[in-house]
Amino acid sequence: MSYIQDKVVIITGSSSGIGEATAIHLAKNGASVVLAARNEEKLKNLAERINKEGGKASYKVTDVTVKEDVQSLVDFTVDKFGRVDTLINSAGMMLFSMWDNAHVDEWETMIDLNVKGVLYGVAAVLPHMKKQGSGQIINVGSIAGHAIGEGHGVYSSTKYAVRAITESLRKEVSVKHNIQAVLVSPGVIATNWQDTVTDEDVKSVLGELNKVAIDVDYVAETIGFVVNKPANVMINDVIVTPTAQEW
After folding, report:
1. d(CA 196, CA 174)
2. With pLDDT > 90 as the criterion, what percentage of the chain qualifies?
3. What is the pLDDT of residue 7?
4. Which long-range contacts (CB under 8 A, 24 or more apart) does 101-107 make?
5. For 78-87, 124-133, 149-158, which range has the lowest pLDDT when averaged over its residues?
6. Where is the Ketoreductase domain (predicted)?
7. Burial 76-113 (b: 16+ CB within 10 A, else e)
8. pLDDT class for 193, splitting at 50, 70, 90?
9. Sorting pLDDT into bands at 50, 70 and 90, what band is 196?
């Protein structure tokens, strides 16, 4: 039996990377996916691809750092489908840098996107899921939320925060309201994430990590495994990394 079939799933950051791959995977398995990101052209193209291949996809241009945008995304989904079964907080940014270089603007960008974006999503879906008496909140963390490497300081801090948010949700919301709260933590994946890194001093670290990177589809399949569970079964925490990744 498939528990993905006919679920209504919001996926932030779905114009590329983990979010895009997850949207394709879930749609192929019968979910109605609502795509959310800032790039309308990419969202439109992805929605058209999914629908052409027999899936069901809608999209809403959304900046997850703006709480009103996230609320509008959830309202759009509920208006269209009558409910939201799963929220996947996939939007995020990984900007490695050395402390000595003090890339404060990049620190703030990661905090706004990786932490506040998750919180805004949680705040927007909770009332609906509580009313339904069920739901799934799946936060995409990182192995960097479990271990800290060179140049990872602020990024790791944001992912440790996501880990804490998810664990707190489990203790307060999962038990009381039957809302699953799950953390999926990928290791190094091949999504060209290193292209956004500006700190030249950290480039050597990136090169070593990329040698073991795995395809993003493996992360999407892992998220699909989490989504494909009945309301009374919750996968608490999943780490999916390259076999050769040391930390």
Report:
1. 36
2. 74
3. 98
4. 101/199, 101/201, 103/198, 103/199, 106/154, 106/198, 107/154
5. 149-158
6. 7-185
7. bbbeebeebbbbbbbbbbbbbbeeeeebeebbebbbbb
8. low
9. low
> Could you tell me the sign of the dihedral formed by the alpha carbons of 65, 69, 71, 76, in that order?
negative
Question: What does the alpha-carbon distance between residue 59 and residue 10 come to, in Å, rounded to a whole number?
Answer: 9
Three-class DSSP category at 91: coil
Distance, C-alpha 57 to centroid of its chain: 17
Q: In terms of Cα–Cα distance, which of 79, 179, 177 is closest to 138?
A: 179
Question: What is the set of active-site residues?
Answer: 155
pLDDT given at position 246: 75
Average pLDDT over residues 108-116: 96
Q: Given pLDDT bands bounded at 50, 70 and 90, which one contains residue 130?
A: very high
Query: Which alpha helices (H) appear in 97-137, and where do they start and end?
Result: 104-110, 117-132
Domain definitions of the chain by residue range:
8-240
H or E element at residue 140 = strand 135-140
Instruction: Please tell me what DSSP assigns to residue 188.
Output: S
Q: Hey, what are 57's tokens? A: 């996809």
Are the CB atoms for 241 and 42 separated by under 8 Å?
A: no
